[in-house]
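User: I'm putting together a teaching handout on how multi-component assemblies are represented. Below are the sequence lines for each component of a complex, exactly as they appear in our records. Could you produce the 3D structure of the whole assembly as structure tokens, so the students can see both representations side by side? Please keep the chain order the same as the input.
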Amino acid sequence: MKKTLAVLLSAAMVAGLAACGGGSTNTATTAAAGSAETQAAAEAAAPAAEGESDGTLRIIQNFDPGTFEPGNNDEQGYNRITTQIYDSLFRYNKDGVLEGRLAESFEWDDDTHLRLHLREGVKFSDGTDFTAEDVVWTITRAIKDALPNYHFNIIDADGCEVVDDYTCVLALKYPCATMPNHLASPECCIASKKAFEESNGDYLGGAVIGTGPYKLDSYVQGDIIKLSANENYWDAEQAPKCKNIELRIVGSGESRATEAKTAQYDVVLNPNSRELDGIEAVDGMHIVYGQTAKTVYLFLNMKQPPMDNVKVREAFARAIDVNATVKLAYQSVGHPAEAFIVPGMLGANKDTYLKYYGAGHDVEAAKALLAEAGYPNGIDLEITVNSSDTERCDMAEAMQAQVAEAGINLSVNKMEDAPMREYIDGGLHQMCIYAFTAQTMEADGFISQIQPGSAALARVGYERQEFFDRYEEGCATLDESERVKIWEECLEMLMEDYAMIPLNHQMLWAAVNDKVDGFWWAPDYEEVYYNMLSK
Amino acid sequence: MLRYIVKRLLFMLVTLSCTIIFVFTLLEFTPGDPAKIILGQTANEEALEAIRLQFHLNDPYIVRLGRYFVQLLHGDLGTSYITRQPIAGAIAARLPLTLRIAFFGILVGACIGILAGTISAVKQFSIADRVLTFISLFGNSAPSFWTAMLFVLIFAVKLQVLPATGSYGFKYWILPVATIGLQCSSGVTRMTRSSVLEVIRQDYIRTARAKGQVEWKVVISHALRNAFIPILTQLSGEFCGYLGGTVLVESVFAIPGIGNYVLDAVKKMDTPVVLSGIVIICAMCSVIILVVDILYSFIDPRIKATFGFGVKKKKTAKAAGGSK
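Assistant: Of course. Below is the structure of the complete assembly, with chains in the same order as your input.
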């Protein structure tokens, strides 16, 4: 009897675990179409044999979305997934030109009212019509549910109005000439109101209905996302070339690099940058680079002594060697700063940048500036970096060695991301390394992030009223050339005050199989449009 | 027996409650404002306040702790700050993967370890003993991520006979299970060797041999069975450890297990996920320890006597018979 019980107990344990094997995918799978994933189906996730093309694009990327709610997360990795399912009102094309997507055109009723003329005949993936009601509902719901979308925060939810099925008016809290650019952000994708209401807001199931090129088939959390072509997709020119996509989630950059080296996948996004030469050496794989709108900066906290002294800030700028630092940390994917924001963005001016930072690394000048500031015998400073960002840690350590020659004793404070944000947003740091993306492809996409009311303002502790006033003027200026002049002035103020030192214009890279055509990185928010890829 | 199990289940509830209070309190002291983590660097104060209200972040500590207990009683593990989706679904998706590689890793480790440990003990000071001791020390010293990467380089990149990452079928499990199995086997080998050596010098082993019992039966039925309790304890400890601690193996092989999920949540300060993840791991460990405790009584009858399994009934029956 007792032996039987012992055997039964052991058998129950083994059976329970064995059941985990077959049933795991069922539990985890969110099947938009209601289909349950089986182990056999999961086996299909394995890459096809070499040379075999089955119309399925197999991609490895790093982000696990956890949900498919448009605008739920401001991470590029998240929005790279949602843009396959949802469309935005506008979008930047390959040449960086803003083009209409769900909105065909726009006009300004006045400074704070933007009238959108929507595309007719667009259907959601469930076959229902896309209307102005969906646009206004998406925006107002995102604002009321406090989704992390600073673009929508410019909009006054109560003032938005549906004029007819294909026209709506967005009311803004303050004039913002670049509002259409903001609406091109993948965070501003439009969802289906009907699907949301019918599924009770289930963004792992019934609410995942968009007008994008693909629709969600299944999702195994933390593991794999399967998409198939949306047969109701409105844009015939950009209809998906591959009918199915399998997006595998691999968090570690080293593991992504390993998979890239096996050449079993079509695209591997952002493998470890130190492994790129090894991947290039593999037959059948090549690396595609892209320039983003993101710049990594050294923030100098102007409210924290001794960084409140402009001479000390300038001395630090002269004591570091930006080119050497970036090349050391980022190696082949480094792009040392050439302007205050990424060249090509409206407002970027290389000449102004050279005027302030062009003299480069000059230890003697740094020493002289420190002496002028009242520190002839050197100074102790601290730089805060995200401990999980290897490149930024490497940059901080390189700077530590460089500034020592100028008598600056720099200590490197490495912190985890969340506590670091708390620390720097509280303005407790002297310096920190962080990045900003000019998502609107204009300088305001960056400047808007250091305005009063923004948590990020504490990272520089900037208080120059003229800067804030000019920004507001720029926002209200519809004429692009006039606006660009204002952005240039704003950026020059930051340079003049040595509030920030631009370090690296962030590059992106992907390992792409030679049989895949059409891969490119969108510069504004690092999207990849998988519907344009063929193999 | 039933009484013992019920008693142990009640103890388990107390352990879980203490764990929840401890972890919840510990997370209270973690620096960082969850609202800022949720909304990112571009959030304004108005949006931050809306998030604090939505997630009841302004409520006092005791109110939030009480609310968490009430949620748990309703089978609700809470909502992730980051995805705003129920945590239960995410854990249900990941837990089986972790359980699977941990269990089969332990199984492989136990098979290799018990066999190697027994050979080592029976052939003490022989070449086989020295080689196996060296291998077990090496296996114990080599970090699991290093072994995992070595396996990937050899079998996935160079030989291309096994997949490097993923969890889509038997061949995907071989490398992670081998990694865990190798590490686990080294500890089990050493434990088995020392336990069997201790038992093998006992009088009853000599008696068994003297009465002419064949050697393999002496080793398995007499020595190994009596040496099994510390080995089982070691295996259950390893299993519990691997439930939450396979994170490095999960990371190298891109297995979406619970270890990775909780670690990711720690980085993002997604405290409800961290708390619920730890509660689930703790509950699983409690169940494993309970099962192992029950198994002890079948391996060693003295334990049965200590806890009175079945003994009381017999005595009562005898006493009743005597009075007649």
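A couple of points students might notice: DSSP finds 17 helices and 17 strands in chain A. Chain A touches chain B through 67 residues (CB under 8 Å).
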